[in-house]
Write a structure and sequence with these properties.
The complex is a heterotrimer of chains A (240), B (327) and C (969). By secondary structure, chain B is mainly alpha-helical. Chain B is 66% helix and 3% strand. Chain B is built from eleven helices and three strands. In chain B, strands 1-2 form a two-stranded antiparallel ribbon. Chain B starts with a helix and ends in a 14-residue tail after the last helix. With 969 residues, chain C is α/β, with parallel strands linked by helices. Chain C contains 26 helices and 35 strands. The chains are: A alpha+beta (240), B mainly alpha (327), C alpha/beta (969). Bound molecules: ligand MGD (2 copies), iron/sulfur cluster (5 copies) and molybdenum atom. The site of one iron/sulfur cluster (SF4) has 13 residues of chain C, from helix 6.
């Protein structure tokens, strides 16, 4: 079985929100659109987005770390959001594990959103149906697109390539290798949802300079030493 | 969670309806087994069932407001194998149908025993319909409450106490209405229903207190650390990705001050339990009046609304960890 | 049921077309691919074949649709109503013909009378090649773009040190660096490429250090965050230099061969040539380069020798006496002396960074540079004829931006950085700093400003470039009294090296009539009524201020913009510009192109959708005006119009007849066979269009490094018209240019003299070696009363004030908060989220605060330009941007408190005139309980203008192909 998913590298994500708007841009005119905006130019604007980039801090000054944290539907392997749906509008695809909503069946009861611990679903207040990240199903499966572009919009957009896309069940895929080798982890493992998406943690590069390394034989200062020539006696002048 | 009034009304109203039906049927059973001296009369069953149906219908009506696409509500029945919501959607009309049948049989006077078991147990069509309806009522209690109790992410709900309380509240408020109806029809069953209402209310008090205590003691299973996967004792959110609102901030937060929430809790603890009992007591000891009973039910129902509001407000969804700070 | 997504193709939904152009949601200028569906924009994505962004895009770029269809779009030329008050947005629609007639009449009168009464200032544009040329042709010196208030310190500080800079001129080679130190950068122009490079660098195991008072964005992923007090980087950098020299961690070979470090400087304090290089008689052609008639002191023979004498190994330290008795010292010796007092312990007290950390940083830089050398097997020949069989790199890369630049001590701080980069041997070498064509340029580059008032003549072209690079006091643009000729006082003794002008002073000076009043102010793509002004509330007042006769002090203001910005309200004439998707544009080598390290790159924009309403590209406006005014460059000999339109101009314009140099470098020559230089090619646009709208010439490998001294490269650059001289461009550890100004101030130098009030200032700030001083504002205000520094950061998802009209981007930053360290909040008695006042010596602002552990406790910060004026940008009067958002600029003084140098000195760097945005001193305190929960100051709501879309609905669901159809909104 295939489980397509994203792997998000927190080590390089700079929190630029490219994945947020490229997602909206692709999907609003796509299979899963429109993604409505409420009060687009008025007070208190809000709208449907499938992906949000958040910011967290940990530690306290001056040992503070800032983490940018993108989050969309994690395409859980045991998606609790699916069985609770009374209409079958929420489903998980057999062929690739993508969790989707069929808007034509959805009655907008929001029950699935209660059953998602991650807050990954967003109710579209205009269309009055539940929406969520589709993993850009209409891109990744569009055979009219060149192979290199059959990737989610956010993945193609991400300037730091912090977003990897692939089959987490294929042990040789880029995503599986990244999870394995770079300590990829799921969110809220305590719920047993077994998310397809994984996150790669921060890694630190430190430099250790040994004291001995500071001084080198070829220290250029030696070349500048203006050695005074002492014209007085030397041992050479002494004879026994 | 955001307390949605459509759902608050839905669950409380159908609870009353279900409880009321149970009260009627209890009376019938008592009568049958001879434990009840007064016969409430067939009209009582008819009116009572109709009233119960009214409550159920009102609940159903209010549930429509919860749906984004009510016109597609018919689709909801399809996933009864996995979804409690689907089950509820099946159970609710079925319950109504069986209660209606029960009322109809009473109306048609089909109370002649079909068979008689032993000395005084005679099985008549109303009894069969009533039994089926009772089963449906309890199923409905389970379905409705399991919608909440089955959401394992909301730990405050994810407990058998939710089922117990939904049921007890339904019974208590239903018997209360039954008492009111009895008083209005002056059929002498006020203290019978009132008595049971006291019992149910008291049990509900225990049940709800147990839930309150449990929730007070609950520790969130998820933390900011597990939510984002960072091990550090100090983790705070600085931005949730947008400065305004979203579905996530609207649906899962009550946006009320802690003081309001506490006030609502104290309010329902008062309105739901001691006050109605106090107002009921005169009727039990013979000095009651219709007005007092009405007040008792009114108080209890208001209390129920507050309780259900609080039920949502006290529910903490793990997704909230991701939506704490605007900037 | 929804169609199965797997059996559906987006391309089958409507008529689909894909067009390439260049993004302009910011100045990074990525290549984009725009997909249209039934004529509406379906999708904008990064062009994978573009050398700059290689397929990626950013949050802004991906929101271009909402810019194109924004209700803030201007669509009609507008004239302030007869009797309408300026500032109130009372306009009537006029035709373009009326607009042109009006401008033609007014401007030709000015031009024939006194051309400097016309001032043209442009904001974050990329058309300085055209706008600057227009100003010169018009004959006015009063032209500048955003550079002066943006990051001129960065340009000047490094270009006066090694002939190139960060910003759009060069950058860090993160492909090969091992250690990367980023200072005072939040987002920068090279947005997407920098993000790409940073991620790749980290993946390769590079170590990333960020020095910044705030940890956001890029700094978030740094391996180490070094919080610093704003305005004190000079102290830090000088201390690092001190430690590196003390430990001998500098690259001696590099200093000897490629800098003026070993060159002998006259050390005779009493003499008029003190501090100048000891020069020998030698024949050389006069030119704007640094002649090689200087001396080294040979170690072996202990005698002076001509620089680059084969076999000579010069001294870097010591003091020597020439045969004529002149005392001299190698420049490096002077540097060593200059940084002597700047110990890490000293810097700790100023910057707040522990001395041990400073030492460690110095050691990390020095040891990585020395011990992790990169050698590329690339042979090259230097200008002196020495053959090298490899290119060596010391893999320590730096990047810095406005965190250093936007301070009044920024020039010297950036000089210090330039010197640090130089002594580590990282200039145009792998893993270090790399130039982007047309850089490196001579130190300083050749163009010079006009020499005096006589350069401005009625009806004549300006004699000199409106902007240039003074190399000597004689290059200043001053009158006989030594006072400014330009309205912004650039190139005067007040800010001698203001190479990008001082746009931020234009309005205040014009309002005050100091040095003179002007008649017409044309603002293009600059929101001077809001976020690009300092002291904004006051400046807005100046724009509507009248004299005794009831005339506006600035009589006529023309604003060319695409959107209903705050500045629109102050226009007398509004010229609606197109969006970037609607016009032809050229990102020209004559301005700041998008070159890569490996060679020159320029780009174009080609329209993908037709103009909205009556919008007209501003380029077309200038061509039309130039033709109507009969400016020489736009007119044939017979006085008739030379260029049909802008695309025609781009193809056929040459810098001088037959020069073969035009706006675009690609596909020149009759058939497109030449590049950089060549005859006009009538099919040039077509060729750009076929090639992703970009021209990229990749230099041969041997020309890609050490370009300051690379003979092959320099000769190539000369023959392709990129530079005039194939002379070495040595790094100026020691700046003789600055010393010349200082000597003038000391009265030791012939020629132009500073006015007396400025003598001390010049003497003080024009030191040939950098020094540290507290920012001017901090020197002049009571820092006990105003203990904090207030700064801003660029949000990655917003471009200045542009993006509040963008329905998607505004949801990310709907309003802003002031970020403060919790320690500060607690000490001032307010909590996270409270309403507080931020007060500077000139104004105060009420806003909400947000606690953050990622900010140095003496610093407060907010996102730049998120706060808006009510009603602007097509937003509702009560939009959060205006009700809860706030603009920090109200607190920033555009002028210093009165001081010895004058009463109205700009709050700018005294060397370059760079606006000191980040010097602002403030205090914060809790707003009282009864105050409204709304930001302050508030301004009367700016009404929509004619031609602007009426209110959009409450819901918007964009679907390409059906959005603009009726009923969809
Ligand atoms: N407090 C504080 N203030 C700052 C800064 C800071 O860091 N802190 N930064 C400063 C810096 S570095 C800069 S560069 C300035 C930037 O200041 P400005 O150059 O004024 O920048 P913008 O707000 O980007 O926009 C100028 C105008 O360009 C218009 N515009 C957008 N696209 C087009 C177009 O295609 N054609 C035309 N004609 N107009 C268009 C917009 O509508 C807007 O009105 O701000 C400065 N102000
Ligand atoms: N998304 C986006 N990109 C942009 C722009 C935009 O508006 N939006 N604007 C463009 C323009 S015009 C410009 S000029 C560039 C500017 O690019 P940057 O220079 O990267 O922009 P700023 O946000 O001004 O960043 C200044 C940084 O310096 C820090 N800082 C302030 N004072 C000091 C100090 O004294 N020392 C140190 N070490 N750090 C300090 C601030 O905390 C901040 O992180 O960005 C360009 N790119
Ligand atoms: S686009 Fe990439 S770098 Fe930017 S926020 Fe999203 S994941 Fe992070
Ligand atoms: S909101 Fe729609 S998708 Fe979600 S549970 Fe209800 S019907 Fe299913
Ligand atoms: S993240 Fe939420 S919505 Fe997505 S599959 Fe998992 S539970 Fe369902
Ligand atoms: S995979 Fe597609 S739908 Fe999901 S977040 Fe990325 S762009 Fe949005
Ligand atoms: S970085 Fe600038 S030019 Fe590049 S895509 Fe983003 S907005 Fe466009
Ligand atoms: Mo800028």
């Amino acid at each position: 079985m295939t489980q397509l998913a994203l792997v998000i590298d927190l080590n390089v994500c700079v929190g630029c929100h490219a994945c947020v708007t490229s997602c909206k841009e692709w999907n609003t005119s796509g299979w899963a659109g429109p993604m409505s905006d409420h009060n687009p130019y008025d007070a208190d604007p809000s709208g449907t987005f499938f992906n949000r980039v958040q910011t967290y801090e940990f530690g306290s000054y001056p040992n503070t770390e800032t983490v940018h944290f993108p989050k969309s539907c994690l395409h859980c392997e045991e998606p609790p959001c699916v069985p609770v749906c009374p209409t079958g509008a929420s489903y998980k695809r057999e062929d690739n594990g993508v969790v989707l909503v069929d808007y034509d069946k959805c009655i907008g009861c929001k029950y699935c959103s209660w059953a998602c611990p991650y807050g990954a679903r967003e109710f579209d207040e205009k269309q009055r149906v539940m929406k969520k990240c589709t993993l850009c199903i209409d891109r990744i499966s569009d055979t009219q697109l060149p192979e290199s572009e059959r990737k989610p919009a956010c993945v193609l957009a991400c300037p730091t390539s912090a977003r990897l896309f692939g089959d987490v069940h294929d042990p040789d895929s880029e995503v599986s290798v990244a999870i394995r080798e770079q300590g990829g982890y799921p969110l809220m493992p305590e719920w047993g949802t077994n998310p397809g998406n994984h996150y790669l943690p921060r890694r630190k590069i430190r430099l250790h300079i040994h004291e001995d390394e500071l001084v080198r034989v070829n220290n250029p200062l030696q070349k500048e030493e203006i050695v005074p020539i002492d014209s007085g006696d030397t041992i050479d002048d002494v004879a026994w | 969670m955001h307390p949605a009034f459509s759902v608050i009304f839905l669950t409380t109203l159908i609870g009353v309806g279900q409880g009321l039906f149970l009260a009627l049927f209890t009376a019938q059973l008592y009568r049958l087994t001879g434990l009840l001296e007064h016969d409430p009369g067939t009209l009582f069953y008819q009116y009572g069932s109709l009233l119960a149906l009214c409550f159920l219908a009102l609940g159903l009506f209010s549930s429509v407001f919860h749906l984004g696409r009510p016109e597609r509500a018919w689709r909801t029945a399809s996933r009864w194998r996995s979804s409690w919501l689907s089950r509820e959607v099946i159970a609710l009309p079925l319950t109504m149908v069986t209660i209606a049948l029960y009322a109809l049989l009473h109306y048609l006077g089909l109370t002649q025993p079909l068979i008689t078991i032993g000395e005084d147990f005679s099985l008549d069509p109303t009894l069969i319909a009533g039994t089926v309806a009772t089963v449906m009522v309890f199923s409905l209690f389970i379905c409705t409450s399991m919608i909440y109790a089955a959401v394992r992410f909301i730990q405050q709900w994810h407990t058998p106490l939710t089922v117990l309380n939904f049921t007890l509240f339904g019974i208590a408020s239903g018997f209360m209405v039954a008492a009111l109806l009895a008083a209005w029809m002056e059929n002498g069953l006020v203290s019978f229903f009132g008595g049971w209402a006291v019992v149910a209310t008291t049990l509900a008090l225990f049940g709800r207190s147990a839930a309150l205590y449990r929730n007070h003691k609950l520790r969130g299973k998820s933390s900011l650390q597990s939510a984002i996967g960072v091990r550090h004792t100090i983790v705070t959110q600085k931005a949730m990705g947008f400065v305004g609102d979203s579905f996530n901030t609207r649906e899962f937060f009550h946006h009320r001050s802690p003081r309001t929430v506490t006030a609502v809790r104290n309010g329902f603890l008062l309105l739901l339990f001691p006050l109605p009992l106090l107002l009921l007591t005169p009727s039990l000891v013979g000095g009651g009046s219709l007005e007092l009973l009405l007040a008792a039910f009114g108080s209890q129902y208001l209390g129920l609304l507050a309780e259900r509001w609080y039920f949502f407000a006290e529910a903490k969804h793990p997704q909230n960890l991701y939506y704490q700070t605007r900037s | 049921m929804m169609q199965d997504p797997a059996s559906r193709s987006d391309r089958d939904i409507g008529r689909s077309e894909v067009k390439n152009t260049t993004c302009y949601m910011c100045a990074c200028r990525c290549g984009i691919r725009v997909t249209l569906r039934d004529g509406e924009i379906r999708h904008i994505e990064g062009n994978p074949d573009h050398p700059l962004n290689r397929g990626v895009i950013c949050a802004k770029g991906a929101s271009g649709i909402m810019k194109q269809y924004s209700p803030a779009r201007l669509t009609k030329p507008l004239l302030r109503k007869e009797g309408g008050e300026r500032g109130k947005s009372e306009f009537e629609e006029i035709s373009w013909e009326q607009a042109f007639a009006l401008m033609e009449e007014r401007l030709s009168r000015i031009r024939n009378d006194d051309p400097k009464k016309f001032a043209l200032f442009t904001g974050r544009d990329q058309m300085q090649a055209l706008t600057g040329m227009f100003a010169k042709q018009f004959g006015t010196p009063n032209y500048a773009a955003h550079g002066g208030f943006c990051s001129v310190n960065m340009a000047a500080g490094l270009i006066y040190t090694f002939g190139g800079s960060f910003w759009e001129f060069g950058g860090p080679d993160l492909d090969r660096a091992k250690l990367f130190v980023m200072i005072g950068t939040a987002e920068d122009h090279h947005s997407n490429p920098l993000k790409r490079a940073l991620a790749q660098f980290k993946r390769q195991g590079g170590r990333f250090i960020s020095i910044n008072p705030v940890r956001t964005g890029y700094s978030a992923i740094a391996d180490e965050w070094v919080p610093i007090k704003p305005g004190t980087d000079g102290a830090l950098l000088l201390a690092i230099i001190n430690e590196i020299i003390k430990q001998g961690l500098f690259d001696r070979d590099f200093i000897v061969n490629y800098t003026n470090g070993a060159e002998l400087v006259i050390n005779e304090p009493s003499r008029a040539d003190h501090g100048l290089f000891y020069r020998v008689e030698m024949h050389y052609e006069e030119g704007c380069f640094d002649p090689q008639n200087k001396l080294w002191w040979d170690r072996e023979l202990d005698v002076p020798m001509g620089t680059q004498t084969p076999g000579c190994d010069p001294r870097l330290l010591g003091e020597y006496v020439m045969d004529d008795g002149t005392h001299v010292k190698p420049a490096f010796q002077l540097l060593t002396e200059a940084v002597e007092e700047y110990t890490p312990e000293w810097a700790e007290g100023i910057s707040g960074i522990p001395a041990a950390t400073i030492r460690r940083l110095a050691h990390e830089m020095g040891v990585v540079a020395r011990d992790q050398k990169i050698e590329l097997p690339i042979p090259w020949t230097d200008v002196w004829g020495n053959e090298h069989n490899k290119v060596v790199g010391n893999p320590v890369a730096f990047h810095a931006m406005r965190g250093l630049a936007a301070h009044s001590n920024g020039f010297h701080t950036i000089r210090s950085l330039g010197i640090l980069m130089t002594i580590l041997g990282t200039i145009d070498r792998p893993g270090g700093f790399r130039h982007k064509a047309p850089f490196p340029r001579p130190v300083p580059p050749c163009p010079k400003p006009p020499k005096g008032p006589e350069s401005v003549q009625p009806g004549e072209v300006l004699d000199g470039m409106p902007l240039g690079w003074p190399a000597d006091p004689k290059d200043l643009f001053v009158d006989a009294e030594g006072e400014a000729v330009r309205i912004d006082k650039a190139f005067s003794w007040e800010y001698p090296l203001s190479v990008h002008g001082l746009m931020h002073n234009a309005i205040t000076n014009a309002w005050r009539g100091d040095p003179y009043p002007i008649d017409t102010l044309l603002l293009f793509m600059a929101n001077m009524g809001w976020n690009s002004s300092m002291n904004t509330e006051k400046v807005r007042q100046m724009l509507v201020d009248k004299n005794e006769e009831g005339e506006y002090k600035i009589p006529f203001i023309i604003v060319a913009d695409t959107f209903q910005s705050e500045t629109i309200a102050f226009a007398d004439l509004v010229l609606p510009d197109t969006s970037y998707l609607e016009r032809h544009d050229a990102m020209s080598m004559l301005d700041r192109p998008i070159s890569e390290y490996d060679g020159p790159v320029d780009a174009v924009r080609i329209p993908v959708v037709p103009p909205t309403g009556e919008c007209k590209p501003f380029q077309e406006v200038l061509i039309e005006l130039g033709s109507r005014l009969k400016l020489p460059a736009f007119t044939k000999e017979d006085g008739s119009r030379k260029f049909k339109n802008y695309p025609d101009f781009i193809v056929n314009y040459e810098t001088s007849p037959g020069s073969g140099i035009g706006f675009l470098a690609g596909w020149r020559g009759k058939g497109g066979e030449k590049f950089l230089k060549g005859e006009p090619n009538p099919r040039q646009w077509e060729m750009y269009s076929k090639n992703n709208c970009v021209f990229h010439y990749e230099l041969p490998k041997s020309y890609q490094y050490m370009r300051n001294w690379n003979r092959g490269y320099l000769e190539w650059a000369r023959s392709h018209g990129m530079t005039r001289y194939a002379e070495p461009i040595n790094c100026h550890l020691y700046s003789e240019v600055l010393q010349k100004f200082r000597l003038a101030a000391q009265g030791k130098r012939e020629g132009k003299q500073p006015p007396d009030r400025l003598r001390k200032r010049i003497e003080n700030f024009f030191t040939p070696l950098p020094f540290y001083y507290e920012t001017l504002e901090s020197q002049l205000v009571d820092t006990h009363q105003f203990p904090l520094t207030a700064i801003t950061q660029r949000p990655m998802a917003m471009y200045h004030s542009w993006d509040s009209q963008n329905a998607w981007l505004r949801q990310i930053h709907t309003h802003n908060y002031l970020f403060v360290n919790p320690l500060l909040g607690k000490s001032q008695g307010f909590s996270d989220g409270d309403w507080i006042w931020v007060e500077s010596p000139i104004n105060k602002v009420r806003c909400m605060c947000r606690f953050s552990e990622s900010v140095e406790p003496g610093t407060v910060w907010t996102w730049n330009a998120v706060g808006k004026a009510s009603g602007a940008w097509g937003l509702a009067a009560d939009a959060n941007e205006s009700r809860k958002g706030f603009l920090l600029n109200h607190l920033i003084n555009e002028e210093l408190p009165p001081c010895e140098a004058g009463n109205h000195m700009s709050n700018s760097d005294p060397v370059t005139g760079q606006a000191a945005w980040f010097d602002t001193r403030v205090k914060v305190y809790k707003a009282s309980a009864g105050e409204p929960e709304c930001s302050s100051p508030q301004f009367p709501t700016q009404p929509r203008v004619p031609g602007q879309e009426k209110k959009r609905g409450r819901w918007q669901g964009y679907v390409a192909g059906i959005f603009q159809k009726k009923g969809r909104r």
